[in-house]
């Protein structure tokens, strides 16, 4: 059986299932690796001030340790989501939001330096229409994340628009300008023409592990990874997909002979080992 990696997921031990319930189910379904990306404070009922972000970062690290206790390999990530920029712009001036986001990134850098986080995410750009100044702030934070990637050789998960070749080219050039390793900066939730462009340009990407998207992705060379992006919110159960369902979908496609074992091994092991610097299962 091909070991399955979930290259981008979330966990909510306060309101949702948490790793206590998710990790053993994923492991049982053939999972070996999880990239756990912390959510914004309010998802956990925590206030969105600096102290709240720090608490949320600590909660994320605890959840990663919990998942490891079930025998999974875990990369633990925390960041400042582009939607948080808009949220804080409701009550702060643009320069205050930028300063605040950078302070959160200082906390992230410290935890990376201490080896308690293995990466930064999600950061990036809004995928919806917003004020231009929001995008500028979000891009400053994204660049700071890529600098952390360069300085400590850790992964970054980018949340971006589905801009096809333009988005992928922007990431490739940005990473080159800053001087980070190209394999460390990952375009999360890439679909359709955006995933295709990322694969063509050699930019690492994660594709949603729902059957429809994945069947389309299988037309591409196996140079991407798969994610559940499970938000673990009881109000939206199984969104985008449960990690164990994501594993099941891939093994189903294998049984239906729609994909080879070799191809799945590249998505779930080789590419994960390369981008996340983890040892194979
Ligand atoms: Zn996500």
Summary keywords:
single chain, 281 residues, alpha/beta, TIM Barrel, two-stranded parallel sheet, 50% helix, globular
Ligand kinds = zinc ion
Q: So what's the oligomer here?
A: single chain
Rg over CA atoms, rounded to whole Å, is 17 Å
> What letter string, H or E per element, gives the SSE order?
EHEHEHHEHEHEHEHEHH
Helix amount: 40-55%
Largest sheet: 6 strands, parallel
- Backbone shape: globular
Q: Give the terminus-to-terminus CA distance.
A: 12 Å
Secondary structural class: alpha/beta
What does this structure look like?
InterPro entries: Metal_Hydrolase, TatD-like, UCP004961. Pfam families: TatD_DNase. This is TatD family hydrolase. There is one protein chain. With 281 residues, the chain is an alpha/beta fold. 50% of the residues lie in helices and 14% in strands. The protein contains ten helices and eight strands. It has helices spanning 18-28, 50-69, 82-89, 94-113, 132-152, 164-178, 192-201, 211-217, 243-255, 261-276; strands at 4-9, 31-37, 73-78, 119-124, 155-159, 185-188, 206-208, 225-227. The mean pLDDT is 97. The structure holds zinc ion. The site of zinc ion has 5 residues, from loops.
Q: Which helices and strands appear, and what pairs or packs with what?
A:
Blueprint: E1 4-9, H1 18-28, E2 31-37, H2 50-69, E3 73-78, H3 82-89, H4 94-113, E4 119-124, H5 132-152, E5 155-159, H6 164-178, E6 185-188, H7 192-201, E7 206-208, H8 211-217, E8 225-227, H9 243-255, H10 261-276
Parallel strand pairs: 1-2, 2-3, 3-4, 4-5, 5-6, 7-8
Helix pairs in contact: 1-2, 1-9, 2-4, 3-5, 4-5, 6-7
